Amino acid sequence: MTTASSVRADAVLAVLRPDVRELIANVDAAVLRPADQTALDRADRTRIALRVALVNDEQDHADELAAELDSVAGDGAADVVRDVERWAELSEPQQALLAHCEQVALDPADVSVAEIGELREQGFGTAQVVAAAQVVAATSFRIRLLRGLRLVEEADGGSVAQPANSIEVGSTADGCELPTPDEAFPQMRWVPWVEADSFDVALRHDPEALEACSAIYNAIMSDPAELAVADRELAALAASLRTGCELSSGVHGRRQVELSDDRITSVALAEAGPASVPDQRQRAIVDAAGALSPTPAALTPEHIARLREVGLTAEGIRDLIAVAAMSAWTNRLAMTLGNATTRDTDW
Predict the structure, then answer these.
(1) Fewer CB in 10 Å around end: N or C, the chain?
(2) Exposed (0-12), middle (13-18) or buried (19+): which is 275, by Cβ within 10 Å?
(3) How far apart are CA 96 and CA 181, in angstroms?
(4) Has this prediction a pTM greater than 0.85?
(5) HEC per residue, 128-192
(6) Secondary structure letter of residue 293 according to DSSP
(7) Cβ proximity of 251 and 221 under 8 Å
(8) Is the alpha carbon torsion for 47, 78, 324, 214 positive or negative?
(9) DSSP assignment letter at 342
């Protein structure tokens, strides 16, 4: 069934590179409608995705998911998800899973190993926890992608003032010297909260979603595109810092330094925030990527106008939005299935 909202979403996504559009379709199939529904069935997956859309204030996508849920779980099923007071009509395990997924969508930094323990008490195994996390993460990606792309298409091209650099280059917010890149972005190890030896192993509990996620991640972060890879890494760093994902911040910070041979910008961003980034083009990238990270996203037409003002094309801005949206996906997996710590931590 094609709804008005799905037509609008298809039209928005049509501006993306063909390879990315195809991979997004693969994501929808693998995460929401996988062939193997042993871990979570389609109704549970759609309930989770609907709740994520609602807390992100993405009404068009919520309406599309609500129609899908009613078609697979019966008329009125979506109304139960929309109204928290009616969650009692769901089973206790379903309520627990939905509440957990809502928190992952709202702020993954507030999720701890205790929440995973509570899901286990409700009878959920690792495969189910990972599948639910993938649904939240992929839906968070799609919502931010749609919101950002709509703003690009609606941009009027007006001129805006660029923000001033308020922290001396090479200093932190308190005026101290910056650390080295190695000090700012130490090698981290990921400690799982689910049965796994590593992050990759944890995600293999939902192999269809992992394959789809890996393919679109590589396309967005590494494949040829208008926005330079170093700028994509800077955007991913800004988004990950805003979300609070230490694992991703370290990876993208180190990669940006390596690609750009700039030992100051990423370190200053991590240590002192966007106000320490003096280059107006980089500052516009950092601010836009960071603004797309919260729930709901805070990206505005002014962010798009600033990006155009510093020379980014519409295609380059779309690349940037895809990177920041992708970070919302990977951050939520890394932060809610385990915890990052420095490699020399004594355990």
Answers:
(1) C
(2) middle
(3) 41
(4) yes
(5) HHHHHHHHHHHHHHHHHHHHHHHHHHHCCCCCCCCCCCCCCCCECCCCCECCCHHHHCCCEEEEE
(6) S
(7) no
(8) positive
(9) E
Would you write out the chain's pLDDT as a tens digit for each of its 347 residues? 344 444 477 788 889 989 899 999 999 999 999 999 999 999 999 999 999 999 999 999 999 999 999 999 999 999 999 999 999 999 999 999 999 999 999 999 999 999 999 999 999 999 999 999 999 999 999 999 999 999 999 987 666 777 877 676 666 667 678 899 999 999 999 999 999 989 999 999 999 999 999 999 999 999 999 999 999 999 999 999 999 999 999 999 999 999 999 999 999 999 999 999 989 999 999 999 999 999 999 999 999 999 999 999 999 999 999 999 999 999 999 999 999 998 654 43
**Whole-angstrom distance, CA of residue 154 vs CA of residue 137:** 26
Please, which residues bridge with residue 339 across strands?
191
Tally of CB atoms within 10 A around 141:
26
Dist. CA 282–CA 312, nearest whole Å: 11
**Torsion angle in degrees (nearest 10) through CA of 229, 32, 125, 84:** 110
Alpha helices in 56-125 (DSSP H): 59-73, 77-82, 92-106, 113-121
Q: Pick the closest to residue 244 from 57, 56, 52, 112 (CA basis).
A: 112
Q: What is the helix, strand, coil percentage profile of the chain, to 5?
A: 65, 5, 30
